[in-house]
């Protein structure tokens, strides 16, 4: 049963020793590696919710759901989103009635998640508590917490037909398939959002060992989290080392439009620029072996660097990278 706390966030048990910031697919891979390396209660994953939107009357939380499905071993490896062994009877029937609805697909299994979330939110249950309920229902012991309970929306300024227009994130990402050139990104409502109590407690904890910024898109997935009022300060003041994992390998993103966006916004698509972007809050930066040439420039910023394989093709790759990140954080703490 969902916790009865409706205007606040129900407390978890023991405080986590590691807090990870994550978007969807790329971040979820490392989150899974961390979950397989640590006891569940020692890990908290703070999920980006600025991708959330209402579709067909339902509240959809793409990054939260990707994390939940990945941690529960339910994710669809072929699409990178949704559940495996999905069926599409609902969308097939709906397309007959509303052909324009197919731009964003909801699978039959996935639909159940959105129905539960929407019903509980409409009853006044906080998103944090709904997410906790879903995680427990899926048998997940990791603490998955949204970046805030208040609505925040990423929008992307792009060029369409020679004009600059603002697109809601899902339209840019799914309907337009990230094709229009990007000029700016912003996060509507972030300044009015607040850090959930469990996240505040975890980041201020004396027993925190590491804060990990997963290899998610810095501008679309991590920046919305950091934009929540007070979040950046909490992370910057944390007693534990803050370690970021580069989402780029030799100037290319493993998945998603990170490098493309950076080029369009006039930024060099390299790990050095991302390390600079996180400057002021990170102590360590994890680079792929292929980016060794960028190490010296990043270390010149006063940021420690470690080289390793960051391409996570298999579960063992994810576990290995998680172990490397945690050992790096430990070494930074001991230095």
The shape, in one word, is globular
Average the pLDDT over all residues and give the rounded result. Answer: 93
Strand order of the largest sheet: 5-2-1-9-10-13-14
Q: Kindly report the name of the CATH homologous superfamily of the largest domain.
A: CofD-like domains
Number of domains: 2
Helix/strand-derived class? alpha/beta
What is the count of β-strands? 14
Q: What is the string of SSEs from the N terminus onward?
A: EHEEEHHHHEEEHEHEHHEEEHHEHEH
Please write the CATH class name of the largest domain: Alpha Beta
CATH fold-level name of the largest domain: Rossmann fold
Task: List the defining traits of the structure above.
19% strand, 13 helices, 335 residues, Rossmann fold, alpha/beta, 14 strands
SSE map:
Blueprint: E1 18-22, H1 25-37, E2 43-47, E3 53-55, E4 58-60, H2 62-71, H3 89-97, H4 108-122, H5 127-137, E5 143-146, E6 153-160, E7 163-168, H6 169-175, E8 182-188, H7 197-203, E9 210-213, H8 218-227, H9 231-236, E10 242-245, E11 248-249, E12 252-253, H10 258-264, H11 271-277, E13 284-288, H12 295-299, E14 304-308, H13 315-334
Parallel strand pairs: 1-2, 1-9, 2-5, 9-10, 10-13, 13-14
Antiparallel strand pairs: 3-4, 6-7, 6-8, 11-12
Helix pairs in contact: 1-2, 1-13, 4-5
């Amino acid at each position: 049963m969902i916790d009865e706390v409706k205007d606040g966030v129900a407390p978890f048990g023991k405080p986590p020793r590691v807090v990870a910031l994550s978007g969807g697919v790329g971040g979820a891979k490392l989150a899974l590696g961390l979950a397989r390396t640590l006891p569940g209660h020692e890990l908290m994953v703070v999920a980006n919710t600025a991708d959330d939107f209402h579709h067909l009357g339902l509240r959809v939380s793409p990054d939260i759901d990707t994390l939940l499905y990945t941690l529960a071993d339910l994710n669809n490896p072929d699409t990178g989103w949704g559940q495996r062994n999905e069926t599409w009877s609902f969308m097939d029937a709906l397309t007959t009635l509303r052909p324009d609805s197919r731009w964003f697909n909801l699978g039959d299994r996935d639909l159940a998640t959105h129905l539960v979330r929407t019903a509980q939110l409409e009853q006044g249950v906080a998103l944090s508590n709904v997410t906790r309920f879903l995680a427990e229902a899926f048998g997940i012991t990791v603490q998955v917490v949204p970046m805030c309970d208040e609505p925040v929306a990423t929008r992307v300024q792009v060029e369409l037909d020679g004009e600059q227009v603002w697109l809601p994130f899902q339209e840019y990402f799914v309907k337009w398939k990230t094709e229009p050139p990007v000029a700016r990104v912003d996060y509507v409502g972030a300044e009015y959002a607040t850090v959930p109590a469990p996240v505040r407690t975890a980041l201020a904890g004396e027993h925190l060992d590491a804060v990990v910024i997963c290899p998610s898109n810095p501008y679309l997935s991590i920046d919305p989290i950091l934009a929540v009022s007070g979040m950046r300060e909490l992370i910057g003041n944390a007693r534990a080392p803050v370690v970021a994992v580069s989402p780029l390998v030799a100037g290319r993103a493993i998945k998603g439009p990170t490098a493309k966006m950076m080029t369009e916004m006039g930024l060099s698509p390299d790990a050095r620029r991302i390390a600079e972007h996180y400057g002021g809050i990170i102590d360590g930066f994890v680079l792929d072996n292929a980016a060794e040439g960028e190490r010296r420039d990043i270390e010149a910023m006063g940021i420690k660097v470690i080289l390793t394989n960051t391409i996570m093709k298999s579960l063992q790759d994810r576990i290995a990278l998680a172990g490397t990140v945690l050992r790096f954080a430990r070494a930074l703490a001991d230095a």
